[in-house]
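Two proteins were folded this term; both appear here.
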Amino acid sequence: MPAIVLVGAQWGDEGKGKVTDLLGSSVDYCVRYQGGNNAGHTVVVDGESYAVHLLPSGVITPGCVPVIGNGVVVDPAVLLDEIAMLEARGVSTERLLISANAHLIAPYHATIDKVTERFLGKNQIGTTGRGIGPTYADKVNRVGVRVQDLFDPGILRQKVEGALDQKNHLLLKVYNRRAITVNEIVDGFLRYADALRPKVADTSAVLNTALDDNKVVLLEGAQATMLDVDHGTYPFVTSSNPTAGGACIGSGVGPTRIDRVVGVLKAYTTRVGAGPFPTELHDADGQHLRKVGGEYGVTTGRPRRCGWFDAVIAKYSTRINGFTDYFLTKLDVLSGFERVPICVAYDVDGVRHDEMPMTQTDFHHARPIFEYLDGWWEDISGCRSFEDLPKAAQAYVKRLEELIGAPVAGVGVGPGRDEVIAIRELVPAA
């Protein structure tokens, strides 16, 4: 059975957790392939809301094996706290597998993250301060610590010594902070070894064997396309590749094994943190979207910036990821607007751009060119077929489908698991 990749098509928070949960009964393995606890997914089941940050959304679904892939950076304290929280609420995590090759977030990573962000002043990136960027930097600089190192104290100490030899110079001489001792880091890490050991595996081998056995593997990205370190709005991005290509690297599953790439879109647009946002609203409409949509960060609690749907970035996401299908969430939040704008192009210094501008400078100067569709007033949360939707809502979805370059397979009309309109199957028949 081929693998399926699930990717956010905007700046994150599109509702990937909801889609993962919907697919849960059809999926045997759910894999997080990048990011760390700077991301969050909210899944609502039977009125109960579950927020997960490191664990894949599929952990909520009975029978689904949740996997933390090699491309994820793991804060062991956060992971164990999240496991304990779910277990206390009756959600089993006994099936969880963690890649031996995943990198560990150390306390010094969070320290450097925070002091660096403060040092940048008005040029801050808007990081969560959880050490994700510095951990990925150490990974690329080959001074990182991996999960497997927890089980070899000698190697662990050697790697921490090498990392701190650099970090302490930076903390002392640049940021005027105290040096961090090797013992405090090593002893802290070793406290987690016994708890994590039973869950650590060669997850690439596990996943490829599962595919050989005709199992369905869902590869789930954190963050989203426009936060991709290569293809997003750099430098206001994350430190890894949430786009579909990153799924192969972060899971150890080859590209020929992927059959379907599903993009998740919100019916409007949001982003958290700094960076350009052409359709951002600073008026009562933006406040309405935030209030009705509950637009506050799962991980940070920060209010999300809200704006109208941007078809330019959606079309760009289709190109970058090769989406075969889209799932559109939160259509219900748009009920009550007399007219609903869609950004169909940008004006950059008097020049129309129907595609993403090539340069950071042009994107910063982009102004939305809107097309206006009729709104609707009805409560659509009870709709369960496309035909149940008001005609204006149907027209809105159809117009988005024309603009984004891939078919819409499903529509979310409320936060609950069953508040969904299925248009076509996302999981191919066996």
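Next, the second protein.
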Amino acid sequence: MHGLRNPGPFLLTILLCTPLSTHAHAQTLSLPSPSNPITSPPPLIQIAALEPAGIELPDAPGLQSPSPQSSSFMPPDQQTAGTISGTVLDASGAQVEGALVSIQFLDSRPQRTLRTDATGSFNFTAVNAGTFKLEVISPGFASWVSSALVLLKGQQYELPTVTLQVSSATTNVDVNFTRHDIAEEQVSLQEKQRVLGIIPNFYVSYTWDAVPLSSGQKFRLALRDAYDPVSLAIPAIIAGIEQSQNSFSGYGQGASGYFKRYAASYGDGFIGSMIGNAILPSILHQDPRYFYKGTGTIRSRALYAMSTAFICKGDNGHWQPNYSFILGNFASAGISNLYYPSTDRNGAGLTISNALIDTASGAASSLLQEFLIKKISRGIPHDPKP
């Protein structure tokens, strides 16, 4: 505060101007009157608040508007603007720095964005009143969007803590199955097929358009069938019957005769399977399996079943003469002459008769496959498609 060096003239001027105005300034003195005794502090105390002499007084002593340069002045739009603030955390309660926070106004205003600081905080200033939504996006987290919120004039809106959840990783894996892979799956299903749940029935496909087998799969299936415990047990039963009937007497009796008969019986099946189901089908590109039909009249199904002893599917999907099965029967019958007793060999006649018997038994086996074996087998696909 500045004290007046010579307050006399200045006080006189104020006293003269007071009667001329009906609205005195807040710092203007009023003369005492009989009806209005002075109850306020002495005039000199208020006068001391005035500026030093020499300041030009306004023309009218009425209330003046504050200057735009005054520190208390604020434009109308700033006086009604508010703020929106908050904090972004992850599920463990740690601050998320650098998260992108966006205000999406529901009117025509443009979107505003900023990033959270090191403490995970954000603060939008000078936000006009209205309805808005907040969206928070951060790498590795699921995006977060608020419901519609309302900011009032001049409100300092503090949003509840935003907790981001780790986004669930979604990986798209394109799996391209090759024909070999599909055939492998189909063969695996066939290896579960057993008549009465015991006898292997690996060479029947209940999928009409099954993928052709590779050479390796043909050999694997033949060996799988040959080394199955049931395939090893059946020749033992046959050898016992032959021993009791003294069939192939050249083998003799006793343990030696029994094991010779067992080896011959097992050899017939093993050689026939390897030649007819693996070697020749691989060379001639033919499929050694029986494809179950299951539809049509009994006559058509019976004719189809018996015909499979003479025709088969090629690896190209077309039907063709079943060279593998027929030639395999003759080859195995001819080889059997090498280990059967000389007294039981009949040269070409025995070979041909055995080959024809094997071919006829193949046709009969196909008839059983078409009409009976499926009903008494286990491991059959639930919905085979012909």
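The first strand starts at residue 82 and ends at 90. Residues 80 and 95 are 31 Å apart (CA to CA). These notes refer to the second protein only.
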